[in-house]
Design a protein that fits this description.
single chain; 131 residues; mainly alpha; 5 helices; 0% strand; elongated
Amino acid sequence: MHVELIILALGAILLLVHIFAAAHFKTKQYGAHWNVGARDEALPPLNPVAGRLARAQANFQESFPIAIVALMGVVLAGRTSDWTTIGGAIWLGARIVYLPLYAFGIPRIRTLVFLISIVGLGMALWPLLRG
């Protein structure tokens, strides 16, 4: 099996971690009744940690489809290489580090780690773009 597919599977697990972390802190703030309800009522803003986790989840959900296209694309096109594996690993590793940095409110390093993840995506996408 291609390593790029394993990286994507681990990325899917990381998405679940994002979802459950954000949901846990929202439920902690709004209560179990909110969690199992229709969630139609207007609510006060999320506390800082819950808000950061919700934003981190949204950010991951924006970049994960790009990773899917890049990593599945190189597998389907037969263009996997050490370069695409390293790029995928950089993306995943940076995204793993990104979550706690965002949760703890560490701004500049978080942004640097995000940019590193983008470099990893670029490394994985490049073989698809060079024809």
